[in-house]
Design brief:
Elements lengths: L2 E12 L2 E12 L14 H9 L6 E6 L2 E2 L25 H11 L4 H14 L15 H5 L9
Helix pairs in contact: 2-3
Length: 150
C-alpha cells in the first residue's frame, strides 16, 4: 500500500489558543479513517484544514506526495458532508449529486454514469428523482460523485 494522505506536524492556533498541536498521520490508499474525540478537540478544524477552509499554522498536508495545502479549496479533491445537509431544495437527488461535476464541466455521459454509480453505492438509486423534502435526514447525508476526468 502507498500513502494516500499525509499530515506532517499540522498545527493550528487561534491567537494564543492551540487547537491542534503537531498532528502527524499517514492514511494508506483504500484505508477508512474515523476521527473521534470530545467536543472542542479539533476534529472539525482538522477537516476544515484538509478541505482548505482553514489554513494550518504549522506543518504540511500532502495528497499522493503533492502539497494539498497549497491548493485553493475548489481545486482539492476533498468532499465535505455538511451537518445541515446544504442541498438545493429545488433540485432532485440526482441533480444535487451531479452539481459539483456539472460546474467542473464534466461531460454529460460521464457525469450521468458517475452520479448513477455513486447513488447505487449508497443504496439511493431508486431515489434519484426525489427531492430533498422527500427523503430522510440520513439519506440527505449520503452520496457524492467525486470528480470527472481531465
Amino acid at each position: 500500500m502507498s500513502t494516500f494522505l499525509r499530515l506532517e506536524n499540522v498545527g493550528k492556533r487561534f491567537g494564543e489558543n492551540v487547537v491542534l498541536a503537531s498532528i502527524s498521520l499517514d492514511v494508506e490508499q483504500g484505508e477508512f479513517l474515523t476521527l473521534l474525540g470530545e467536543s472542542g478537540s479539533g476534529k472539525t478544524t482538522l477537516l476544515r484544514i484538509l478541505a482548505g477552509f482553514e489554513e494550518a499554522t504549522s506543518g504540511r498536508v500532502l495528497l499522493e506526495d503533492a502539497r494539498l495545502d497549497a491548493l485553493p479549496p475548489h481545486r482539492r479533491p476533498i468532499h465535505t458532508v455538511f451537518q445541515s445537509y446544504a442541498l438545493f431544495p429545488h433540485m432532485s437527488v440526482f441533480e444535487n449529486v451531479a452539481y459539483g461535476l456539472r460546474v467542473r464541466g464534466c461531460a454529460r455521459d460521464e457525469m450521468t454514469a458517475r452520479v448513477e454509480e455513486a447513488l447505487q453505492k449508497v443504496h439511493m438509486g431508486q431515489l434519484a428523482k426525489h427531492f430533498p423534502r422527500q427523503i430522510s435526514g440520513g439519506q440527505k447525508q449520503r452520496g457524492g460523485a467525486g470528480s470527472c476526468a481531465g
